[in-house]
Amino acid sequence: MKNHLKRIASPKTWFINRKQNVFILRPNAGGHPLEQGMALGVILRDFLKLASTMHEIHGLLQLKEVLVDGKRQKDHRSMVGLFDVIAIPELKSYNRLVFDQKGRIIVIEIPVSESNMKISKIVNKSALSGGKIQFNLYDGKNIISTQKAKVGDSLVLNLSKLEIKKVLPLQVGVSVFLTKGKYAGSMGILKEIKGTQATYHSNGKDVETAKEYLFVVGEKKPEMHISAEKSSEKNKEKALNV
After folding, report:
1. Do residues 18 and 50 share a domain?
2. Cα distances (angstroms) measured from residue 204 to each of 57, 78, 189
3. Is the residue at 224 inside a domain?
């Protein structure tokens, strides 16, 4: 796999200046699809502005503990994807990757209390001996548990122990986040599921979308900070310099 990617050919979800330079760092293959993640080095340099060159990012990753979902990362090409938590305890920097309301990847600051939690969607599961179930999550993680949950439900995770704190079922009345499609990045309350289609209420109107695009983020309201509204202007200014 090539180490770089032409900016003009990068995914539309990447909130970057496509004409400033020819190339941008391509992330290593990971649990997230390319359109839902970026290389750690790009996030640290161009979004968090912790260095001005990739050489400086190399030094940062070696000298300071940079955690992605609770695990230290030293490779600047590591994939960081949707809802992943980037924590640098020494700098008291805690951030999460989300989509803005136009479906573009941005980085928002989160409180330290959320740096050890994450919501993950179940994309598959399989039965094991002893009544246990292996849940395969959207970001490539796998968790073995005795808790009951269905494909499409979400799990609130403790990242340090990688254990389930709470199950968020995909059902009418829950708070959902759209991960794909025309309305990627928007949030609302789920009103109806009919076959492969769903309807959710957002900003005073009902919106139809595909059921597979739904990501449950809370029962009545999101269990974590995922809103890009307060960070939109800051991210817009950063993106113009990426």
Report:
1. yes
2. 44, 39, 11
3. no
How many structural domains are present in the chain? 3
The Cα 202–Cα 73 span in angstroms is 37
Residue 217 near residue 98, CB atoms below 8 Å: no
- 24 and 98 housed in the same domain: yes
Q: Do 70 and 108 sit in the same domain of this protein?
A: yes
Report d(CA 200, CA 159) in Å as an integer: 29
Q: How far is CA 159 from the centre of its chain?
A: 14
The range of the structural domain enclosing residue 15 comes to 4-114
pLDDT tens profile 9-29: 888 999 988 887 888 999 999
Residue ending a domain, among 114, 132, 148, is 114
Predicted local confidence at residue 197, as pLDDT:
96
Alpha carbons within 13 A on the beta-carbon side of 102: 9
- Give the predicted TM-score (pTM) of the model: 0.88
| pLDDT bucket at 228, cuts 50 / 70 / 90 | low
Q: What would the two tokens of residue 224 be?
A: 């974590």
**β-pairing verdict for 117-127 and 133-137:** antiparallel
